[in-house]
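Review form for a predicted model. The reviewer records the input and the model, then writes brief findings.
Reviewer: anonymous (R2)
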Amino acid sequence: MVIIKTKEEIEKMRKVGKLAAQLLKYVEPFVKEGVSTLYLNDLCEEYTQKNGAVSAPLNYHGFPKSICTSINNVVCHGIPSEDEILRDGDIVNVDVTVLLDGFHGDTSATFLVGNVPEEVKNLVLRTENALYRGINEIAPGKYLYEVGRAIEKYISKFGYSIVRDYGGHGIGRDFHEEPYVHHHYTREDAIRLRPGMIFTVEPMINMGNSYEVATSAEDGWTVTTRDGSRSAQFEHTVLVTDRGVEILTKL
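Model under review:
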């Protein structure tokens, strides 16, 4: 059941969305060569606590850290570690979700570390472009599948693939709510958009032509591309308004 947020709930979602955006902006300068992903995690945890919020991923279904850090061929749910050191040429997605006053704000970005190959830079740039292509389709009366259709239309010409095992989601009092948001075209998303709906758009794009992924048997969380190709992701939490869309996690 898709939850339509009240005016009071929307205001709380604006506040938590802003905090999530501020957190991601805060950690960005620290994403550089020689830094461990655990250090990024600890910075985010400290910032979140100082702002009176809680790191939603921590202990969520047993997830052991406060943020997700997904490097190169890791698609999502990478676990920060002191042994995982960012190196020249890496790309890393930092995914943060904060819980403030009973509501969740969720956002992520893929960062470049040092001298990244041009073809990988293009993957990252085009993934961010794909995010906004999808968001630009959101308006009351339209269908949710138009988000995925716009992303797929844009991405397909580059020979990339769109991860299908994971997608966006409704968000509010719960970390994950209805609806599920596909980032490719499917009639499963034949849901009419209405003002007050809040969900994430978060395409995960693989450089290879395979969208297949695998989950680590060792930790049960880390998701990688099956073919070893690099993967990028960007994410925003968005609100369907009376006239269109409002990005709640953009400063």
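Findings: The chain has a mean pLDDT of 98.
Further findings: The two ends are 30 Å apart (CA to CA).
Recommendation: see findings above.
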